[in-house]
Structure formats: structure tokens, C-alpha cells
Amino acid sequence: MVRAGLTAERVVGAAAELADEVGVDGVTVSALARRFGVKDASLYSHIRNLRDLRVRVALRANAELADRLEPAVAGRAGRDALAAFADAYREYALAHPGRYAAAQMPLTAEDIAGLDADTRCGELVYAVLRAYGLAEPDLTDAARLLRGTFHGFVTLESAGGFQHSRPTGASWAAAVDALHAALENWPRPSP
């Protein structure tokens, strides 16, 4: 019998909140059951197992991030789009550290079958980069550069890894400017 009030949506929402509070590794079926005041078995009507729960949190986080990125970059190009994308990315990662960490987990084709949540962020990155006149394989290389820079920065920032007196926001803006310069001057193959 399904406990009144519990739905898959509520379970995943509570797991996302828990991830932000204690980290994605702290999201367990037992911890979530305690949050609802039920036995672990009550949650298995809504999730298959712990991995399924964490995948659902990752998918939710990817969708939430895309929902922030889309309006940020809409109607913008070049440095304006890059900066808007970067700022929305950073704001989400810092506001939702557990969800952001979940969004980094590798997902299988089965995990994302029929969903666009995992691909929307990638499509937005490529849209921003196309304004710089990049084509494959440069698009993929540049996308990896952006992701590596953004992820590295926000991961260090959220862990308190920047102890210098210079404000991290100023360093973030400088990093975005440097990325813009790199993208504008992307090495082109010789003809």
C-alpha cells in the first residue's frame, strides 16, 4: 500500500533538498525515510533503489540548471551570452551544491531515455559557442574548456578553496573575460 501523501515527485524533491543540506553522498533511502517519518520500504513504491533515486536527483538538477541557463542566454551572443551563461551556472552551483554535485554523475543512455534534461545544458553551451564561429571538433574542445573551467571554479569556491583577499566574483569575471578572449582567438587549422 502506498503511504498517503508520498509521491515520486515529493520523494525526489526531498532527496534534492537533502543533497543540498548534506551532500549527494549523504542521500540514502534511510535518511530520506527518516525525513518523511516512514520506513525505508515505503519509499520503494516510488523508487527502484538508491541509484535510481540519485539519478532522478541528477536529472532534476540538470533540468533546473537548464531552466536557469535558457532565459539567461536568450537573445544574447558572444561575450554577453558567455557571461550570462557563466553567471547562471555559478549561481545555481553555489545555491544548490548537492544537486549540482548530483548533476555531475555519469548517466547512462537508459537513465536519460526519452528525456531532454541531460542534453539541454549541452545544447545551450554549443549555442553560445557557435557565435564564436566554432565547428566540430573545436566545438567539443571549447565546450570541455568551459565546463572544466566553470566546474573547477565553483567546486573550489564552494569548498572554501579561495582564501586570497581578492573577491571571488572579480576572479570569476576575469576568468570569463579570459575564456572570451580564448574563444575569439581559437586556433584555426592551417589551410
Textual characterization of the structure:
Keywords: DNA-binding, Transcription, Transcription regulation. With 191 residues, the protein is mostly helical. 69% of the residues lie in helices and 0% in strands. Helix 4 runs parallel beside helix 8 and helix 8 crosses helix 9. The mean pLDDT is 93.
Concise description?
The chain has 191 residues and is mostly helical. The protein has helices at 8-22, 29-36, 40-43, 50-73, 78-95, 97-103, 109-112, 117-130, 138-158, 168-184. Helix 1 crosses helix 4 (50-73), helix 4 (50-73) crosses helix 6 and helix 9 (138-158) packs antiparallel against helix 10.
| CATH class membership of one domain | Mainly Alpha
Q: Please, what is the average pLDDT?
A: 93
Order of helices and strands: HHHHHHHHHH
Instruction: Say which CATH homologous superfamily of one domain is assigned.
Output: Tetracycline Repressor, domain 2
Query: By helix and strand content, what is the structural category?
Result: mainly alpha
Main sheet properties: none
The fold-level CATH name of one domain is Tetracycline Repressor, domain 2
Which short descriptors sum up this protein?
191 residues; 69% helix; WHG domain-containing protein; mainly alpha
Helices and strands in order:
Elements: H1 8-22, H2 29-36, H3 40-43, H4 50-73, H5 78-95, H6 97-103, H7 109-112, H8 117-130, H9 138-158, H10 168-184
